[in-house]
Amino acid sequence: MKPRDHTKLLGELAEAYTQHSPRSASLNETAMQTMVDGGSHSLRLIKPFPPRIVSAKGAWLKDEDGHDLLDFWQGHHANILGHNPEVVTAVLAQAFQSGYGLLTGFTESVQIETAEILCRQTGAERVRFTISGAMATMYAILLARAFTQRELVMKVGGGWHGAQPWGVIGVHFYASGGEPWQVESQGLPPGLSQQVINTRFNDPDALHDHFRQYGDRLACFIVEPFVGAGGFIFATPEYLRAARQLTDQYGVVLIFDEVVSGFRFRAGDLGALYGVKPDLAAFAKGMGGGMPVAAVAGRADIMKLCGREGGNKVMFVGGTYSCHPASMLAARAQLTYLVAHEEQIYPHIACLGEKARRVMEETFAQEGIYVRCTGYGNEVVPGSSVVIPNFPYEEGRELATPEDVNDPAVCDTTLRDKVCQLALLLEDVHVVHGGGSLTAAHTEADIAFFSEACHRAARRIKAGLGGRTATWT
What we know:
With about 475 residues, the protein is of the alpha/beta class. The chain folds into two domains: about 5-85 and about 340-465, Aspartate Aminotransferase, domain 1, CATH 3.90.1150.10; about 85-340, 3-Layer(aba) Sandwich (Aspartate Aminotransferase, domain 2). It has helices at about 5-20, 20-30, 75, 85-95, 110-120, 135-150, 205-215, 235-250, 270-275, 300-305, 325-340, 340-365, 400-405, 415-425, 445-465; strands at about 55, 60-65, 70, 125-130, 150-155, 170-175, 180-185, 195-200, 220-225, 225, 235, 255-260, 280-285, 295-300, 370-375, 385-390, 430, 435. A seven-stranded mixed sheet has the order 4-14-13-12-9-5-8, sandwiched between helices. Strands 1-2-3-17 form a four-stranded mixed sheet. α4 (about 85-95) runs antiparallel to α11 (about 325-340). The N and C termini lie close together (about 10 Å). The model has no long low-confidence stretch (mean pLDDT about 95).
C-alpha cells in the first residue's frame, strides 16, 4: 500500500500548535542557536518544536505556556511511579540537606544494598552498575565476545539496544528497496556491520535457520523479551524458549535487554514470567526512579571477566558517574518500594494500560479511523501498562513483529508518529509514537481526560483527512 501524504494535515496541525504554545516556539528558536536541533535527544525534539517543561509531578507536566499536560512518555517509560515520586525525592532531599548525594568517587553501602535487591529480584549472581541502557548493552556484548572468543553478534531486526556500535545496525525499516535492515549511523569501524546478524522477532523458524548458519561463530544473541522501540510487542513463549535452547546448543551467550521491561511488568525481570533465564541481562530505566542508573547482571563466570578474578579482560569500568550517590539512593528507594508494593502496583497499572488501549481503539473507531494497539499482554504476561496505536491499512492484520508496525506499506507510520502526537498535544496530552506508559500516579480520572482528548484529536484528524476514513481494505 502506498503511504498516504499527510503534508497538508501536518502543516495545519503545526500552525495550530504554534499558536497554542508560543512560548515554547520562541524558546525553540533560541535553543537552535546553540544546540543541534535545539536539544540533545532526538525523540524529544518533535517538529515543529517540543513543549518546554517547567515542572512535572505524577502523571502531569506543566509547560512554559502554562498548559497542564497529561504525560504518557514518562521519562522514556522509566517513571513507573510517575514524575518525581515522593518516595524517591524525599530520600534525595534529605541526603542533600545532610551533605551527601553528589559525586565523591568512593564506594558506599548503598551500592551494596541496591545490588543485593537487583540480584535477589532477577536471580543474577553478579552485578556491575553503569549509567545508561546503551552502555549496559554495550558492556554485555563485550563480555559475551570475550567469554566466547567469537565476533558475531545476533540481534532482532527492529530491536533497539541504544546508541552503541552493535546497537545502531538494523533498527529501522526501509521500504525503498535494498536490505530491509540497514546500518543506522556513519562513523562506525569498517566491517562492523558484517559482524551483526539480524533475525526476525517472534519467528522461531528464522531463529533456527540463523543458528544453523552462524551458530558456531556467534558470541551472543541479544533480544528484548518485550520489544520497545520496535512497537511494544511481547515475545511469544515459544520464541524465548527457542532462544534459550539454541544458545545453549551452540555455546552462545543469551543476553536479555531488559532496559525497558525490567521492573515495568513485575518487581524484577520480565524473563522470569517466561521461565527463561538469560546468561546476562541489561537493566536501566525503571530501576532508577528517574535518576541515571543502569546495570549488567548475570552469571558470575562471565561477569568476572571485567574484574580482578578474570584478569580485567573486559574494560567495563562503568564511567565516572557510575554508582553516583544520588542515583544509587534513588534506585534503592525505587526498588525497595516496587518490591514491597508489587501486588498493588502492577495489577493497577496493567488495568490502566488495558483501558488506555481500549480508549484509543474505540474513540478513533467512532470517527471512522481504524486503530490497532500493541502493548497487550499474552499467556505469560497477565497485563501490560503500555500502549502504542497503529494504523494498519488492513483490518485484522497481525502485528507481531517490528516489521509489521514499522513498514509504511503496512501501517500508516506518519499518522502514528507525527499526526497523532501533534493532534493530542493540542488537547494537552503528550505521547511519543502515538502512545506511551501508564504509571502508579495515573488515575481513572486521567483515563477519562484521555478519552475526551482522543475523541477531539480523532475528529481533528478526520477533518484533516477530508472526512475520509483511515482504513484501506
